[in-house]
Amino acid sequence: MSGYDTLFFQGDDDSQMISIAGDEGRVILTRDTQIMRRRVVTGGKIKAILIRSDDSERQMLQVIDALHLSPFFNPFTICLECNQPLTERSKPQVEGRVPTYVFQTRDQYMECPHCHRLYWRGTHWQAMIERLNKFSRHSRERL
Ligand SMILES: [Zn+2]
User: Is the full-model pTM beyond 0.70?
Assistant: First the structure.
């Protein structure tokens, strides 16, 4: 939501995940204490954060604090499903691909070039803005 390049690792081979993190300069977010004990992590070659809470909101706040992230870094510019930068689409380009009510009331659309999911500023978008505002208030309180 904030626009940070994020990869969800779905394999079960930790070495592969660590290798990707190293190659792509990624920070590992994990609940696995074994990964935190790896030499590449303890030696500081790869940065990893052990996520403490079970609650997704608390997890997000921990990551924001640890990496000094800005919730409004570059909001809604990356596909929530596949982490690809979104492309702007004109109204004629989305006709017939979004609900009629949406088409009649919205002028701006974004599309993921990979999964072709369409995004627009609807009620779900509003709810996400509120979440980002909440995270933003939290980060300011911590300064
Ligand atoms: Zn996508």
Answer: yes
Handedness of CA 10, 16, 38, 84 (dihedral sign): negative
What does each C-alpha distance from 136 to 71, 110, 140 come to in angstroms?
Answer: 6, 24, 6
103 burial via Cβ count (<10 Å: 0-12, 13-18, 19+): middle
| C-alpha 116 – ligand 1 centre gap (Å) | 6
Q: Calculate how far, in angstroms, residue 59's C-alpha sits from the geometric centre of ligand 1.
A: 24
Instruction: Find the 87 Cα to ligand 1 centroid distance in Å.
Output: 11
The model's pLDDT over 84-135, given as tens digits with 9 standing for 90+, comes to 999 999 999 999 999 999 999 999 999 999 999 999 998 888 899 999 999 9
| CA of residue 82 to ligand 1 center, whole Å | 4
